[in-house]
Amino acid sequence: MQFNRQQSRFVSRLTSNTLALILAGGRGSRLKHLTMWRAKPAVPFAGKFRIIDFPLSNCINSGIRRIGVLTQYKAHSLIRHIRQGWGSLRGDFGEFVELLPAQQRIEASWYAGTADAVYQNLDILRRHNPDHVLILAGDHIYKMDYGPMLAFHVEQEADITVGCIEVPLAEASAFGVMGIDEESRIVTFEEKPANPTPKPGTEDVALVSMGIYIFNTDFLFEQLIKDADTPGSSRDFGKDIIPKLLGTYRVFAYPFADSSTGGQSYWRDVGTVDSYWKANLELISVTPELNLYDKDWPIWTYQRQVPPAKFVFDDEDRRGMAVDSITSGGCIISGATVRRSLLFSNVVVESWSYIEDSVILPDVSIGKNCRIRKAIIDKNCIIPDGMVIGENREEDERRFYVSEGGVVLVIPEMLGQQVHYVR
């Protein structure tokens, strides 16, 4: 089927008849202590958002307003966030963000893999009766219009289309690595290979899956049932389903590229402490790749009602200031200095303290005469007066978690503060 991609009415019909499923049940163990009490998609990001706000916003901005969020691991804060921030869609117009927790609907087990998570909700999918099912990872940071990808899927008469990007070969072993032919048809697919194959014509770049799949609905049901009946399957799209489809069905790759330049669009997997720290601090640059001020593609979220940020005291040795930084609502910088850092809401930094190259999550209190460098301070931490973090690696490793890249991660429990009252 051939058509003009500028025919927005055609694309809007595709998006309105698509059901998006966001896989948000992952533990995110590579984020270490940041996911001790929350699922990875619920981890705060960029000063006021959570990671899951990005795929959710992409759906809304793309015109996809039928969305299911599949949850499992420590999902309370994620569920609360979605209920508070994403409950405004009109059910009487057929719009919804529906929570689909692991509830053993088909089998007496929790979600065993990405494919199994969708399989265990087949009865719900059948009730919604979409033309296409868009499956998304709930733990990546990017802005993407899914409409053109749906149009590409229909144009190619594909059974499944996989969103893909180029990454450095050294990082490709963390993803599904694919090979394609001249028509963008996928001919090889290896899930997290130890020795990734570079993209043809290159030596240091691989083509990898973004964890974005578009299925024709009936075809998806057929493959999920077949996989569920296969002994030994790990019930995963990347490991089991997609490789078995190659050569028999129409499986295509859709490159995620900047429509104006043709180059690689912004996409970040913030799955490690180092990548999470780096992606947050990228946002403080003068012109970051991820534009949070884009009025044409806003990122939506639940926002607490907090007062504006405040900077107080202007003495020579006690000046409240933030330079090359982002400070969110409710912050009070009281005679302290903040440089090249990102502060979430309701962070208080007391006099004579110095914060540099750090990510401070919500509701953190930093006492007087503290020095914090290259750190992530988790929500609700109370940093006592005079504490130094990020200057002595040996001392930091004794008290906190220090990443390979030297980022110091601090959570309340490491400070002896039992926020969750565990006994």
Q: Could you please describe the fold and organization of this structure?
A:
This protein has 423 residues and is an alpha/beta fold. It has two domains: 8-282, Spore Coat Polysaccharide Biosynthesis Protein SpsA, Chain A; 310-415, Hexapeptide repeat proteins (UDP N-Acetylglucosamine Acyltransferase, domain 1). A hairpin with a 3-residue loop joins strand 2 (44-45) and strand 3. Helix 1 (8-16) crosses helix 6 (146-155). The longest helix is centred in the middle third of the chain and has 12 residues, at 217-228. The mean pLDDT is 93.
Radius of gyration over C-alpha positions, nearest whole angstrom: 23 Å
Report the CATH architecture of the largest domain: Alpha-Beta Complex
Give the domain tally.
2
Mean pLDDT: 93
- Helix percentage: 10-25%
Q: In what order do the strands lie side by side in the largest sheet?
A: 5-4-1-6-11-8-12
* Gross morphology: globular
Straight-line distance between termini: 62 Å
Q: Total number of helical segments? A: 10
Assign the CATH superfamily of the largest domain: Spore Coat Polysaccharide Biosynthesis Protein SpsA, Chain A
Fold topology:
Layout: H1 8-16, E1 18-23, E2 44-45, E3 49-50, H2 53-62, E4 66-71, H3 76-85, E5 96-101, H4 114-119, H5 122-128, E6 132-137, E7 140-142, H6 146-155, E8 160-168, E9 176-180, E10 186-191, E11 205-216, H7 217-228, H8 237-245, E12 251-255, E13 267-269, H9 273-282, E14 310-312, E15 314-315, E16 318-319, E17 321-323, E18 326-327, E19 332-334, E20 337-339, E21 342-343, E22 348-349, E23 354-356, E24 359-360, E25 365-366, E26 371-373, E27 375-377, E28 382-383, E29 388-389, H10 393-399, E30 401-402, E31 408-410
Parallel strand pairs: 1-4, 1-6, 4-5, 8-12, 14-19, 17-20, 18-21, 19-22, 20-23, 21-24, 22-25, 23-26, 24-27, 25-28, 26-29, 27-31
Antiparallel strand pairs: 2-3, 6-11, 7-13, 8-11, 9-10, 15-16, 30-31
Helix pairs in contact: 1-6
